[in-house]
Amino acid sequence: MQERLKELQAEAIQKAAEAASLKELNDIRVAYLGKKGPITEVLRGMGKLSAEERPVMGALANEVREAIAVKIEAKQTELEEAEVQAKLALETIDVTLPGRPVKVGNHHPLTKIIEEIEDLFIGMGYEVAEGPEVEQDYYNFEALNLPKGHPARDMQDSFYITEEILLRTHTSPVQARTMEKHQGKGPIKIICPGKVYRRDNDDATHSHQFMQIEGLVVGENIRMSDLKGTLEVFAKKMFGEDREIRLRPSFFPFTEPSVEMDISCKMCGGHGCNVCKQTGWIEILGAGMVHPNVLEMAGYDPKKYNGFAFGMGPERIAMLKYGIDDIRHFYTNDVRFLKQFAIEE
Ligand code: FA5
Description:
Blueprint: H1 2-18, H2 22-33, H3 38-44, H4 53-90, H5 109-122, E1 127-128, E2 134-136, H6 137-140, E3 165-167, H7 172-181, E4 188-197, E5 209-219, H8 224-239, E6 245-252, E7 255-264, E8 281-290, H9 292-297, E9 306-312, H10 314-322, H11 329-332, H12 335-339
Parallel strand pairs: 1-4
Antiparallel strand pairs: 2-3, 4-5, 5-9, 6-7, 7-8, 8-9
Helix pairs in contact: 1-2, 1-4, 2-4, 5-10
Bound molecules: adenosine-5'-[phenylalaninyl-phosphate] (FA5).
């Protein structure tokens, strides 16, 4: 029995030393030290021994168990350490390798153009004002000299929510709101960028939802020449000195006199194409001197104050500036289109 125990000890220690993995080592532990293991088996036979031999054998069995357990434990520490080292070796980072480029987004071309226009006007002393997209009929039309039933309301086909509430068809209601806030006193110089909505059929230059930037100047002795000069500075800065600009007489109920400004079409060099509808020109804004009725409704005395206003479409400006042939590109979010505007950031 003594010999058998010694044999088992040597065998277990040998196997533990050769174990190549923690799993293998655990199997050895279970095999030799477990309840169904050979040492337990040997101990079961102790009943046949004499009273003197029994404690001696018991002590030896415990020694053997202890020796095997110590060896297994030492091997376990060794294997665990080796496992950590192997993992570390696998995770070694070579800091000299070139990094993988991170995909970075860029500003939407419309955001860029709107910020550029804002910066230009801020540089001329304007402030940026905003108003709600879901607007009252009063501010969108009535306060702009367009009473209910006025035929000129048909110029802007509207999305009504209730009889009195609609999605604003232009940014001009911000004019009316700002003037009302000033309670008829003092000068105003604002630009108002924002989204507007119309029941227009989508085509190369029309969208049912688009952006506008409104401008409003109110003060004393403001003249049509101030408006013309401002628009010229804007157009030359935006499109370059060489692009042609024209002002055409027009009609808006909230301005008198009214004009529209066109820029020569970049796509066809003025010869005519589907972007300019074969005219060689693209209309980018409407403008005029603020109608006395509009000033009066907002609390300004039209005998003392006057002003000018304009409203432009940044999509069309971006199309002209970047040579984009269809307004729908701005809203279909094709990354191949959007990425082209990353270069200039
Ligand atoms: C207006 O909306 C007036 N509120 C502008 C104005 C303001 C005039 C202040 C006088 C004083 P109009 O409907 O022409 O005007 O639109 C102005 C600009 O918005 C147009 O020149 C064009 O650039 C753009 N625009 C109009 N409809 C669309 C559309 N469906 N899709 C894209 N851009 C459009």
